[in-house]
């Protein structure tokens, strides 16, 4: 019973985040107006898989709250506190990119090749892949920043149905 409730809640929360991001993506000027500009850096950094998990753990520990209109700054830089800002932090990108902008710095990979620090991306939401929960590799454990505003970053398992709606991607400058 608990698993079904968790899966339903996870699916509903993820669906709400996707719909909120998708609404912004339909109007380019609305996206530009709504997304907060945060820090900018000289270039996208090279990173390791361990470093991506370490960087994102800092936001989990600090319980950074979701918002597309605020930034969070720590020793890893200043990034927007939404799903794509979180992945931008993880990868050490030169700025907080929108979900659609992650294609500029990553490439699609086969699902069976997912490794910690890769991401699962859809038209309106992205989450960082941490590990597989099951040996069949159907239930990914992800770290993600979803709405509504004020919700903290979470680490959770996705159902196979939720995961099937996402494309696995790998950052071009990740090592290991």
TrEMBL record:
Residues 1-32 form the signal peptide. Keywords: Signal. InterPro entries: Papain-like_cys_pep_sf. The keyword Signal applies. SUPFAM superfamilies: Cysteine proteinases. This is Cell wall-associated NlpC family hydrolase.
């Amino acid at each position: 019973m608990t698993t079904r409730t968790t899966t339903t809640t996870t699916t509903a929360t993820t669906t709400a985040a996707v719909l909120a991001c998708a609404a912004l993506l339909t109007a380019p000027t609305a996206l530009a107006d709504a997304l907060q500009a945060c820090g900018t850096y000289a270039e996208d950094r090279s990173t390791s898989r361990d470093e991506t998990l370490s960087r994102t753990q800092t936001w989990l520990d600090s319980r950074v709250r979701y918002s597309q209109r605020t930034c969070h700054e720590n020793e890893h830089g200043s990034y927007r506190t939404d799903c794509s800002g979180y992945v931008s932090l993880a990868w050490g990108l030169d700025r907080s990119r929108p979900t659609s902008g992650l294609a500029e710095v990553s490439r699609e990979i086969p699902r069976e090749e997912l490794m910690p620090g890769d991401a699962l991306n859809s038209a309106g939401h992205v989450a960082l892949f941490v590990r597989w929960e099951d040996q069949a590799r159907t239930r990914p454990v992800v770290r993600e920043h979803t709405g509504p505003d004020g919700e903290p970053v979470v680490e959770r398992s996705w159902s196979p149905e939720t995961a099937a709606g996402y494309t696995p991607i790998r950052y071009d400058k990740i090592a290991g």
